[in-house]
Amino acid sequence: MSIIFSGVQPTSTPTLGNYLGAIRNFPELQEGNECYYCIVDQHAITVPQDSQLLHERIRKLAAIYLAVGIDPNQSTLFIQSEVPAHAQLGWILQCYCYIGELERMTQFKDKSKGKDAVSTGLLTYPPLMAADILLYNTNLVPVGADQKQHLELTRNVAERLNNKYGELFTVPEVFIPPVGARIMSLVEPTKKMSKSDDNQKATIFILDSEKDITKKIKSATTDSDQSIYYDKEQKPGISNLLDIYSLCSGKSIKDLENEYRDQGYGSFKTDVAEAVVNTLKPIQEKYYNLIETNQLDEILDDGASKAQSVAVKTLARVEKAIGLGRHS
Ligand code: TYM
């Protein structure tokens, strides 16, 4: 049995990238493991948010987690800000991270590039993420490839405190899926598919309509070669569509290459779109059934109290070890 933790920011509806790179694996990991799946709303406010929209997106994300198959009887589903131990341990870990190592994080560099005013939270994002993970004695963290550097920092800070104070933390492993760890933009396939892309055609969102999904895939950037095979360097657009198609259909890339090699891009794209629609449709149906129910609140209340009961124990252990308060 492993302890699994992962989180998603409620900064927009999750994308197909979020789904194929991370969320898709969450329900599968429930069997035989102790899983914590978190809506990391405190991470979301490291960049400006509209408060009403943020509330709505938190609720939406909870419904999406359930719609993809997270079972609240098997997993703990909760909102980060409802478990105060995250911010408390996050502060402590900030005091054991160095500004230099945080400034080297690619996500910080990307998100702060060209901005006049950058919040302190954007810089101290990784120690809060480390706190999320370390509070639950996590063994395994399923994420997309873009989180690898944050996981390395989490392991480093855990080891740093373990070396100084004895075995305080379990040092977690990262789980990055072999296919789908980096789904690319449909417009610029050398760039990651992102929630915040200004070009609406670049990103498929989990709740997009069949019409929008088809339109976006049909207009995806490819190349002028007209031959379908996997080559990330020479054919990034086609390779990205092959990754998406393979994950949504269960067929291997090799089989898809054999099936489509001599067919035109038009019919290939039609079939990719159909596979994506078929993958997302059942999730959307479940989502629309769930979003208005008060079942959602009961699940989140229960999740927060289960998470807090584990998290406070870790926090007390750490505070005691480092000398805070009156722990004896
Ligand atoms: P976030 O909200 O940006 O993304 C959620 C998950 O989706 C993955 N992902 C992708 N996978 C493949 N292709 C893409 N284009 C793509 N875009 C995003 C991300 O790798 C992630 O797994 N820092 C995290 C949230 C977080 C967290 C945590 C994760 C906070 N605390 C603790 C794990 C454990 C983030 O910004 O994810």
Automatic annotation (TrEMBL):
Catalytic activity, reaction form: tRNA(Trp) + L-tryptophan + ATP = L-tryptophyl-tRNA(Trp) + AMP + diphosphate + H(+)
Main location: cytoplasm
Keywords, sorted A to Z: Aminoacyl-tRNA synthetase, ATP-binding, Cytoplasm, Ligase, Nucleotide-binding, Protein biosynthesis
Motif ('KMSKS' region): 192-196
Cellular localisation: Cytoplasm
Residue positions binding L-tryptophan: D132
SUPFAM superfamilies per record: Nucleotidylyl transferase
InterPro entries tied to this protein: aa-tRNA-synth_Ic, Rossmann-like_a/b/a_fold, Trp-tRNA-ligase, Trp-tRNA-ligase_bac-type, Trp-tRNA_synthetase
The protein's enzyme class: ligase
Source domain of life: Bacteria
Binding locations of ATP: Q9, P10, T11, G17, N18, G144, A145, D146, I183, K192, M193, S194, K195, S196
GO function term, MF aspect, one: tryptophan-tRNA ligase activity
This enzyme's EC code(s): 6.1.1.2
Quaternary organization: Homodimer.
Biological role stated in the UniProt entry: Catalyzes the attachment of tryptophan to tRNA(Trp).
PANTHER family the record matches: TRYPTOPHAN--TRNA LIGASE, MITOCHONDRIAL
Family per similarity comment: Belongs to the class-I aminoacyl-tRNA synthetase family.
HAMAP family the UniProt entry points to: Trp_tRNA_synth_B (MF_00140_B)
Annotated protein name in UniProt: Tryptophan--tRNA ligase
Species of origin: Terrilactibacillus laevilacticus
